[in-house]
Structure formats: C-alpha cells, structure tokens
Amino acid sequence: MPDPEQSVLEGHRNYIRRIVSLGISNNSPLLASCSQDGQIRVWNLLKNTCIAVLTGHKGQIYDLIFLESQQILISASQDHTIKLWKVGTWNCLRTLYGNEGWVGHLVFNQKNNMLSSGGSDRKVRMWCIESGKCKTVFNGTDSEIFSLENGEWEGNLMVIAGDIRGKIYFFNCSTQNLNPEKKVNAHNDKILRLKFYKSKEKGKKVLISCSNDKTIKIWNVKSMDLLKNLEIHTHFVTDFYFDEKNEVLISCSFDNMIKMISLKSYEVLATWKVNHHLINITWVPIANMLCTSSTSNNEFGIYIAYF
Question: In angstroms, rounded to a whole number, what is the distance separating the alpha carbons of residues 144 and 133?
Fold first, then answer.
C-alpha cells in the first residue's frame, strides 16, 4: 500500500489525549480532539481548520466519545467531572458530578442508554445522561481504570474495564451484584484500549486489548482464553481503530509505527512509519482519512493521512 499524503492540524498547547470522528456536517467531515490543555477543539477536515473551541473543564481532558444518534459529544476530565456538549451549537448541556477522582474513560451502551465512566477512584459508574444522575456504582478495581468497553452475551449487558496493572474486569449490568463477575490477569502493564466484537468468520465473541507491554491480545470473551498474542510493535501500543465490517485493526505505538492487521488471518497488511510517538488513532471512512495524534517535540498536532 503506498504512503499517503499528509497534513497537520495545530492549535492545542499540550498533549492530545483523544480524537473522535463526528461524521459529516454541511458536506464536511468533522473531528473532535481533547487535550491536557483543558480544551476540546472541533476541526473541519475538508478545510483543515478549527471551527469551535469548547472550554469549561478545570483540568486536563482525558477522553471523548460521540453519540451519533443524539448528536452529543461527552468529555471526561481531571477535574472529576463529565460534560455533555451539543454538536452544532457546541453548548454544554449538562455536567455530571460524583466521581471521586479524575475521570479517564467513557463508554456508552445503546441497549440500556447508559453511560459508564472509570478513572482514578477505581470504580465504574453508570449514568443516565438525560437526568445526569448516577444509577450504579460498581465496587472498585485493584488500580486506576485506563480503558472501558461494553459487551453483551448470554442475555447480559456487561461493562468491561482494564486497569493500570493489566487486569480486565467484567461487571454484569443485568444483576444486583456490584462486584466483578470475572477478573483476568491479561497484560503485564496498563491496558489502554478494549474492543468487543463478534467475529464473523470464527463465530465467537471476541475482546481485543492493547497495552503498554507492547502487545495486542485477542480473547475469547466467554472463556477468556487467549486466541492470539500479537507482538508486532516494539514499544507501547497506545491505541487502535477497529473496522468491524472488514475485521481489520489499525494500531499505533510509541515505536512511531502504524500497523494494519487482518483479524481473520492475523497478517500485517500494511505498515507506515512516522517521525513521532503516537497516542491516538481513528479512521474517517467517509473522507478516506486516517487521523493520529502525537506526543513528540512539543508538537501537539493531529496528523491526517489522505488515502
């Protein structure tokens, strides 16, 4: 695969912690980014310009998720709060209070319309975003939560958490049990991303995890047997994007490499090398763009590759 053309979006004054695609608005693809500078920026990828700066958090912003059906952007911060922003007007709709430490990670479940959060207080909280009320607080993990995901199997809705020590926890949203149903020693270092999906070819429900231990691991969710240990990077694997339709994974790392992997054959389909460490990665299929963010040399930019 040939090397893509590239451009850079600049404006943040500190490390960019998360980038998310916001779909199309006025025929232009939009991207949102959050940073340790306490800002959220919204970018028009067609014009390579910042169209909005969202302020209100009183600390670093660690995570962003986009609810397409409701056109809401949700942010998590060092200031112990979660904020909901209306896409288009960019107004803050609501602030969620109740966390006992920084909030690092968010996931939304369409099935029960609930938001889950996790962070330094080692608890998973479930929120009703319409009322702003915390409905459930699951008992603590062994260490700070660095990743969250939803899953569903055997008729139960689950929240899956990964922590700083490399453990994965399964919380059952369908019962009154506030303790984890399962805890697995999955990695040797912090888990930075989790993704649940059903493999089309293998017919199994699968969990993907990546970690500072330089690996990407593929798990059978029901048994948590390890299906594949991918050792394709030489430094922290910081993030990945999963193309569910094609069962392709695109990973990024502090080794300055982007890898495209088939989850059918586990073959590395393509490799791109850049000149900076990579923190985030996302694919914008409607614009055929791959977006990454970097930590290197105080260049707090979003790097866009055009295919």
Answer: 23
